[in-house]
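Model it.
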Amino acid sequence: MSTNLAKMFALVLVFYSGLASANDLAMKRMVEDITNIFMSSMEYIFKNQPLINQKGGNKGELFGQSFISNVKNTYHMKYRQPFPDLDHRAKRMLLQAMVEVLEDNRILLNDAEIGFKGLIPATFAFQLSRKLSIKGIGLTIKFTRHTQSIRNKANIPDEWEVEIMDKIQKEPRIYYDANATLNGKPAYRQFTPLPMKPYCLNCHGAMRNNPLNKGKDPAQWTNIDMTGFTMENWTLKDFGGGVSISIEKSVITE
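Modeled.
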């Protein structure tokens, strides 16, 4: 190979390597955007439990563009930066799926007799994940933890998530993988750990943390939480699991 040809070949390699690196960086940013948008929606759902569980009344803030505006405001307050551009189908479909999940629950949320509606962050996340799966856009969101402590079997971690959670317990941080697989298909994946918060103990803590036991004699306390599950006696020191975001590479194009 001549010297000039070798130089040209080297330049081509550098060029395509640069394109690949730029693409991976763009995908990493998109996965981060999707994660943060999702986390903002979860925080809004948690902070607005009084409105969600209110018996009747005006619940307009929970539906349509009002809900999206509230998620955007939550994003601003949480991350102190502008809401991400909706420059990819996956982001737009995520917001659409959120609106559809709330719409699916409209009758329940507007019920004037039922107090606890059951739309907590965990159930919202599960319904949203199912909605995205049905849409088939290659975006998967899972609120997961180690297998032995999972309530919803649909959220059981796969091999990649188990491996990452083991790493997180040794070195807590966000893990991003540009060369992962999902159901045997190449995918971009990110796992964001969620530390236990005081509000988590309302359902997962001890009986003294159970809001259903407030004001009652300890002899009358129950270890069944508001959602009907047995409380696990977790503490703030326990591993809280996290949010796993996956995007299949084969469907990532606009």
